[in-house]
Amino acid sequence: MTDLHRFIKALPKAELHLHIEGSLEPEQMFELAQRNNVTLPYGSVEDIRKAYDFNNLQEFLDLYYAGMSVLQTQQDFYDLTYAYLKRVHADNCRHVEIFFDPQGHTDRGIAFSDVIEGILDALAQGQTDFGISSHLILSFLRHLSEEAAFETLAQAEPYLDRIMGVGLDSSELGHPPSKFERVFAKAREMGLKLFAHAGEEGPPEYVYEALDLLKVDRIDHGNRSLEDDDLVKRLVDEQMVLTVCPLSNLKLCVVDDLTDHPLKTMLAMGLKATVNSDDPSYFGGYLNDNYIQTADALNLTQEEIVQLVKNGFEGAYLSPDRATELMFELATAVSAFRAQ
Ligand code: HPA
Ligand SMILES: [Zn+2]
Questions:
Q1: What is the pLDDT of residues 302-330, one digit of tens each?
Q2: Which of this chain's residues are annotated to bind substrate (predicted)?
């Protein structure tokens, strides 16, 4: 292990772009399939891992939605979420803001309440057991209609005190942010924060739409913003947080090689980029793997790593006390490391 790897591991971190269904590990998929009498189209854990070879976002999404079929009960959603928290606790992750895709479950006949209550109970237990603070973000599937998104938002009403925001994910091309302008306006009126995947595969125009029409508080991914100088200038001026996911970008062929990843350039341009894992089970790495592999590929400095971690804390919706606490933990970890 290099010094930089040890440095990354020693730092407290936040994760702001994580789909909880994308943390379903093949072993757990098998276990839940057995528990729920679901037949999987795979013979072994190795077969599943072999199938995770994607050429684009849609190829991943097809397996991601198929994998969800094993999630049936409130306990399943609890176990899924608790396993993720336990795993990122080992990465010294101190705060998470996670997406869930309720329509991927309610459309299969699972009750919204089972999905959200399982996840929320595990998040509460993660706070108790691991000291991880968290927020939950309800994400709309953009390949479905805006009407379906409105119906999902209505189902969330009893839980509004425990949902921090709404997001927009799934197949980006052909489903621009403009399709969801009204439902995002409604979510804003309800006091929710607003997030949208934009510029992962979609053009810079989709990032403009997320900013101007949806009025988002963060852009998820945002990579293709770099094709438009005016857009980059605006994102820098507004200090808009980008939740970048390097290993996801590699696995979904958004970049050909990690050495081509724009993360270092983003920081140099003054963009408020953060590092996240997106769907760690499918993309081959959790939070530290994303930091470490990207740091190696791009020769990131300790200062750049600290900037990324700080951006994560500043881009998160932390209470003032929690923000102070985490910034103090970060400063302490950096000094302790440098004093060695
Ligand atoms: O990376 C992603 N992009 C779009 N939709 C998603 N749903 C889960 N992960 C993703
Ligand atoms: Zn994502």
A1: 999 999 999 999 999 999 999 999 999 99
A2: 279
- Burial of 53 by CB count in 10 Å (0-12 exposed, 13-18 middle, 19+ buried)? exposed
Integer Cα distance of 95 and 322 in angstroms:
9
Find the helix or strand (DSSP H, E) in which 220 lies.
Answer: strand 218-221
Report how far ligand 2's centroid is from the alpha carbon of 57 (Å).
10
Give the CATH class of 3-339.
Answer: alpha beta
The 218-221 sheet, strands edge to edge: 13-19, 93-100, 133-141, 165-169, 193-198, 218-221, 241-244, 272-275
- What distance in angstroms lies between residue 167's CA and the mean position of ligand 2's atoms? 9
Any idea where the domains of the chain sit in the sequence? 3-339
Residue 238 C-beta-side C-alpha neighbours within 13 Å:
17
Tokens of 305: 């790593």
Nearest ligand (C-alpha, residue 278):
2
pLDDT at 144: 98
Of all protein residues, the one whose alpha carbon is nearest to atom 4 of ligand 1 is 170
Q: How much is the pTM? A: 0.98
Total number of residues shown for the chain: 340
Burial 215-249 (b: 16+ CB within 10 A, else e): ebbbbbbbbbbbebeebbeebeeeebbbbbbbbbb
Reported confidence tier of residue 1, pLDDT bands at 50, 70, 90: confident
Relative to the CA of 101, which ligand 1 atom is closest?
Answer: 7
Question: In this structure, which ligand is nearest to the CA of 220?
Answer: 2
Pocket of ligand 1 (CB under 6 A): 19, 22, 57, 64, 169-170, 197, 200, 248, 278-279
**Angle at which helices 287-298 and 302-315 cross, to 10°:** 140
